[in-house]
Amino acid sequence: MGCFFAPPFARKPIALEMIDEIPIADLDPRQVKQLESADKVRQNNPTHALEIYGAILKQSPGCLELRKKLRALQLKNLKVSSSGISGLFNKVTTAPFAFRAKGEKDPKETLAKAEELINKLPSNVVAHQTLAEAAANIGMLETAVFAYETIQRIQPKDIKNLKDLGNAYIQSGNTEMAIATGNSIKQINPNDGDAEDMLKRASVAVAMNKGKWEESEDFRTQLKDEEEAQALEQASKNVNDEKSLEDLIRQTYEKVTQEPENLNHYRQLSDYYQRYGDLKNSIAWIQEARKQEGGQGDVSLEEKERQLTEEYFDQSIEAWEKACKESPGDENAKASLEHTILQKSEYQRSQLESLVERYPNDYGYRYELGLLLYGNDRYDDALPHFQLAQRNAKVRLDAILYLGRSYSRKGFHDLAVEQFTSLKNEIQIMDDRKKEAIYELGCCFEAMGSPEKAIDEYKLVYSADISFRDVSEKINAFYEQNS
Known about the structure:
By secondary structure, the chain is an all-alpha fold. About 75% of the residues lie in helices and about 0% in strands. The protein starts with about 30 loop residues before the first helix and ends with a helix.
């Protein structure tokens, strides 16, 4: 069992069909003959060769060797046909294709669409990125690496792509190249935290893969004689330093190989990776636990994976926000931030819809889904979830508040007034939730053309908290108008 797995948040409710990567020699003999014929004319008739390469690759998308031949000829053709090659190679193509392709349910179809875009413009960076992500989703890890390597050829100093490339190297087991890529990033930006993280993960992977702990008798003896004696004491401490965590990861990994049915080892390994700062592997080990017979129906594992994945998205969003702040003119960073936010929203929605479908009586999930839909201005879709969520005592009052807000945003102010009034009367102390309900009630009265009723509600909030939202401005405007 390996320790490093595919990217976590591509997980779908349905299983994706994996594609094996194969050499040209493993293709159908007829296809091999067609390729040999195309090779003979590629110098004098590159267009015909491109057509043959592309057609066979569409039939056999797992043939990485053929994809490399196709890409080399495409880029060579671009170089010959364009006098402004450097300008083209440094241009990032607009993003509509990327968002459309990422929405595709079938990664195979996405691969084909990406190839079509690349054939039209081989310097289309977004198409190469989409190709890489789709390939990784169906197990074509070397193809994903090749796609990121192609982008590196087009844009050698694109740090985001270098990070994607380094992570792809780790996932495919090429840890030496991952370290080289991390060092390349540090040459461009010496203080890059993601590069440091990449180097840490690659170093651990090198030790695990090259040291072959699972096969080393010396390691087993050393573990038993020296490290295992300290395991309980070490595990009981709040260990956060890198060396101690790496030791714990080694020990727990060994336990997984010895007792693969014990889910506690997977949970522990996920926890250590989380504390190590490696959320991708933390999520991957939870996913691995869910594949085991005892973990397939474990709701706690599913919830843990969801929490970790959202944390991973939050970290990515924070990093891109920082990049946008440091370089306001970086359109690449802005696009990446928008895309990551979109990815998180889509992930949350798909997960919550699946949970609500499978656990219709868990009204906490309904409240979470209602909040997400409300945040996306989908008030009609949010309403039934907030109505049912009131059956959960923990979220009941918040569900009433957002039910009223959903009515209000739809313009159903009379129905909203009923919800806000109910909440106002039920909550005995003037906490934030009650202030929100009273303020929203005032807004409804204002929208309904009853300013006197509105100001009475605003006064209640003003007398309790003068700094609440814009209630002070509303009160001042009212008295100035009447004076």
